[in-house]
Amino acid sequence: MSAEFSKMMLGEDMEELNFDLGDIEALQGVSKFPARIKCATLAWKAMEKAVAANEQ
Questions:
Q1: From the record, what ranges are coiled-coil (predicted)?
Q2: Which of 5, 8, 31, 46 has the fewest CB atoms within 10 Å around its CB?
C-alpha cells in the first residue's frame, strides 16, 4: 500500500491498483505541488522503516 501511495504522489497512473486507497486518494492533488510530496510521504516512509526494522 505504501508503494502505491508513493506512485500516486509521483503522479503515476493509478488505473493499475489492486485495491482501493479510500480516503487517502484525497491527497492525490498533492502530486501537483512537488514541494509537498515529501511532507505527504514522510509518515509512509517512517512506517516502512519501522516495519523493516521489526522484521529483522
A1: none
A2: 46
